């Protein structure tokens, strides 16, 4: 899908990857760019891209529905909805219930709330695109964070399911699965921690890869090409892959 003339929503658009996507979509000539976030800075990004800023907590279904209504009232039917807002909390099974619940709400349910409203509309039009920001942690794992690993796997599971179920009815779905990107999320980690072993990308580099991936209508968008090789290795010999990941755990396990 070409970005030009499209109506696009980006959640988590106040900073990092989301703000870079909004800027890049505007530069590509999108008809309308709507940025949504819990942070007030979303209005600055909206002003910069000549779009609409919406304060929205994506873990609340009513906020997501209101965001979609506001976007469509301003710019018409949404062509591309980027569920990008996400949080990282460290910890294992013993992480606080509140952190598990926040991770599930923001990293998983937000995608489901958006799909509940948008998929029927997109299928009725026979056209529409959902971009879901997961992480390499969703294909591989996240050393040091069970809530992140689990919720990012769930994002990919949901995206696969949507693509299989509605792909023949005009719905396009992609997942974005980067390793370390230089944003607020990785600030304070040394070089992105374990996710930075193949280097840290800038958000605008990720946005370039996303635009190319959407133009190609590719399901898996991988700004770090190495991830595909790791994913192959995991599929071809799970036990060997787990042994390798234990070595990384020994090296990086306490970094977060
Ligand atoms: N930075 C990385 O290394 C990296 C790697 C892989 C995947 N990701 C994913 O990329 C996405 C964007 O993260 P980022 O790196 O740009 O970090 P970031 O912290 O700069 O951006 C995340 C944005 O989401 C917003 N947000 C958080 N909770 C929200 C909520 N309930 N409702 C609405 N907005 C909310 C934040 O305010 C923030 O602006 C996330 O889904 C993240 O998991 C990041």
Task: Provide a descriptive summary of the structure in words.
This protein is α/β, with parallel strands linked by helices. About 45% of the residues are buried. It has helices at about 15-25, 40-50, 60-75, 95-125, 135-140, 145-165, 205-215, 225-235, 240-250, and strands at about 5-10, 30-35, 50-55, 80-85, 130-135, 170-175, 220. Nicotinamide-adenine-dinucleotide binds near residues 15, 58, 59 and 186.
Helix segment count? 9
Helix/strand order: EHEHEHEHEHHEHEHH
Percent of residues in helices: 40-55%
Q: How many runs of DSSP E, i.e. beta strands?
A: 7
- Strand sequence of the main sheet, in spatial order? 3-2-1-4-5-6-7
Structural class: alpha/beta
* Bound ligands, named by name, code or SMILES: nicotinamide-adenine-dinucleotide
The percentage of residues in β strands lies in 5-15%
Low-pLDDT regions: none
How far the N terminus sits from the C terminus, by CA atoms, comes to: 38 Å
Identify the overall geometry: globular
Sheet with most strands? 7 strands, parallel
Radius of gyration: 17 Å
Overall average pLDDT: 96
Quick recap of the structure?
With 256 residues, the chain is of the alpha/beta class.
Task: Offer a few descriptive terms.
256 residues, alpha/beta, seven-stranded parallel β-sheet, 13% strand, binds nicotinamide-adenine-dinucleotide
Give the topology.
Layout: E1 7-11, H1 16-27, E2 32-37, H2 42-49, E3 52-55, H3 61-75, E4 80-83, H4 97-125, E5 128-133, H5 136-139, H6 146-166, E6 171-176, H7 203-215, E7 220-221, H8 226-236, H9 238-252
Parallel strand pairs: 1-2, 1-4, 2-3, 4-5, 5-6, 6-7
Helix pairs in contact: 1-2, 1-7, 3-4, 4-6, 8-9
